[in-house]
Amino acid sequence: MAEKLRNKRAQLVILDKHNYHNFQPLMYQVATGGLEAGSIAYPIRKIIQDYPDCYFRLAHVKEIDTKGKRIISDIGELHYDYLVIATGSKTNYFGNKEIQRNAMAMKTIPQSLNIRSLILENFEQAVLTEDAAERNCLINFCLVGGGPTGVELAGALAEMKKEILQKDYPDLDITKMEINLIQSGDRILNTMSEKSSKAAEDFLHNLGVKIWKNIRVLNYDGRTVTTNSDVLFETSTVIWTAGVQGASISGIKGDSLIENAHRYRVNEFSQVAGHDNIFAIGDIAQMESSENPQGHPMMAQPALQQGRLLAKNILKLIEGTMMEPFEYNDKGSMATIGRNKAVVDLPRGHFHGVFAWFVWMFVHLISLIGFKNKAVVLMNWIYNYIRFDREGRLIIRPYKKKSFTAFTSDEV
Ligand SMILES: Cc1cc2nc3c(=O)[nH]c(=O)nc-3n(C[C@H](O)[C@H](O)[C@H](O)COP(=O)(O)OP(=O)(O)OC[C@H]3O[C@@H](n4cnc5c(N)ncnc54)[C@H](O)[C@@H]3O)c2cc1C
Q1: Residue 118: its pLDDT value, please?
Q2: DSSP, res 250
Q3: Chain segment 185-229, per-residue pLDDT in tens
Q4: Is 296 close to ligand 1, i.e. is its CB under 6 Å away?
Q5: What's the mean pLDDT in 85-113?
Q6: What is the dihedral of CA 45, 15, 374, 3, to 10 degrees?
């Protein structure tokens, strides 16, 4: 949006609680030591350096005062003529506080680094313990949610087991390491085609991942995962990717807010219901239509396309001309399971395997911001591919489960 509004008659102020843009699709590689965090993040101030009349403030927005046209943040108040809410989404634990306290989430870079530290700390502890049950618990991993994030993480963990952990920990019986992917529905990747979901399942089976379908996780007390069946899991690590909800901000409610999804209801011009000068785009926005009764998928493409169109529409609004309605151009979706393994759904077909993996890599590489990030990620991928290695397996910032609850929160 900022790019489209540069050199136009609008002053733009970007507020974000982080000073960087992060590329979420590659977070699972940070969590499993394949990439360094810095290579999937980019400073916002650098993006807007050459944009005249565009400002950035590091601020956590707490409230919107729609009557007074003000936003209230931890650095003070700001007046707006037009407000664009693009706060994205956060993990949804469906109200289960115990799962929220004990499970790991992966929506931010700090959370990905927590997962990386925890995996490695578990292995270091497993080497030390004499208690076999404790050891198994430490090297047993449960991933809840069989969407793209759970699938990609499961595949990466399985490759880490095969290529790294068995070499790094020769004194452990690595065959005891379990990767359990738990999905409440009857297939993984259920937003993709059945063909892709079946192919992903086969890839994961071959990598040794145990897939549990039609099982709903009810609780996790830090040791035991209970489910709605008689299946239980004893594990030190649960990674929760089973739900997302909009990162809504207080101040907008009633008809404008879809309570259970925490997303703002918007019209085809991205205007929040009942507020002509407030817009919402991306994950936080629910633009309902006959084709998309629940709004567009919470994915990068709708967010990017809505942002581009909204920049044009705001200028039209200022000029007093007609705004253009949003039409989603679905370019397809994809997921990777590991080395030479990916699935791709296009509007007119599906494919999987090595070619799909190259397509996945290309699309993700060109989507990264910054030449250096692209080059570093490409170099890392080539190195990891040739050497069967992931040198990011470092405990830079130790993760302390009990006393570190602040870092498990989505506020980080
Ligand atoms: C692990 C993972 C993997 C994914 N993989 C894919 C994929 O392969 N393909 C795909 O299409 N999509 C993928 N997605 C989804 C995709 O990343 C999102 O749909 C997309 O980033 C949404 O863009 P957005 O601008 O709405 O929100 P975001 O990109 O999440 O940006 C929201 C911004 O708002 C800031 N913010 C939030 N609340 C506040 C506040 N109160 N005050 C100040 N700042 C605030 C945040 O710091 C953040 O910078 C993935 C998501 C995750 C978590």
Answers
A1: 98
A2: B
A3: 999 999 999 999 999 999 999 999 999 999 999 999 999 999 999
A4: no
A5: 97
A6: -80
pLDDT at position 402, please? 58
DSSP-assigned beta bridge partners for residue 279 = 84, 271
Angstrom distance (rounded) from CA 207 to CA 161: 10
What span, in angstroms and rounded, lies between the C-alpha atoms of 267 and 273?
A: 7
Substitution candidate for ligand 1 out of 24, 57, 115 with most atoms within 8 A of CB: 24
Non-local (6+) Cβ contacts of 297 within 8 A are 191, 333
Token pair of 211, please? 């897939």
**Cβ 272 vs Cβ 280: under 8 Å:** yes
Distance between Cα 386 and ligand 1 center (Å)? 31
Residue from 369, 358, 303 nearest 23 by CA: 369
d(CA 361, CA 34): 14
Are 56 and 45 spatial neighbours (Cβ–Cβ below 8 Å)? yes
Q: What is the pLDDT of residues 251-268, one digit of tens each?
A: 999 999 999 999 999 999
Q: Given phi > 0 = left and psi -120 to 50 = alpha, else beta, which region is 249? A: beta
Radius of gyration of the chain, Cα coordinates, nearest whole angstrom: 22
Q: What is the pLDDT of residue 412?
A: 56
User: What are the residues facing 178 on neighbouring strands?
Assistant: 140
Q: Which tokens sit at 62?
A: 């707490």
Q: What percent of the chain has pLDDT over 70?
A: 97
The residue behind tokens 């108040």 is 77
